[in-house]
Amino acid sequence: MPTKKLDFKSGQYVVYPTQGVGKLLRVEEQTIGDQKIKMMVIDFERNHMTLRVPLERAELSGLRPLSSVKKMDEAIASAKGKAGAKRMIWARRAAQYEENINSGDPMKLAEVVRDLQRRSTTDTMTFSARQLYLRALERMAQEFAVLHKMDLDAASDKIEDILGVPKEIDLNAIDEDEEDDDGEDDEG
User: According to a count of CB atoms within 10 Å of the terminal CB, is the N or C end of the chain lower?
Assistant: First the structure.
């Protein structure tokens, strides 16, 4: 079965499933043993990592170009849906979520975000569920950020705003009106 030729260009952003979004710096030739192999050099700035992927194994590794804005919007829309009813023990669900995160597929990332997001400010989350949620959200946000030319934190916030995820309550916040009232009482 013939495989399609992936066409990447230097400077292009790509998605490597287990690492997220990186920038293709160049294609270089390396000699390993007696063989010359063309390697794609990908920089993952956020992870402080450079990855070399043999050109002939790029498709097999799951390396892909960024999704379209339309596909990303579809993924985010699917994350708005009702959480899937999972009747399996947490360890199996966590393993499935981990597999979805490492797939690099926006729809599978959206599934993890959908299933693990908080629906109200009173919802609590276990530490491991929170870590999986944050990793899936970050992977989605990496691609969203590049597509919409924004920074990662803004992209994460935008996705959570679209999904309607409640913000954390700051218990240390002081109501400004109360503070102003106290100052006025001292004058009179």
Answer: N
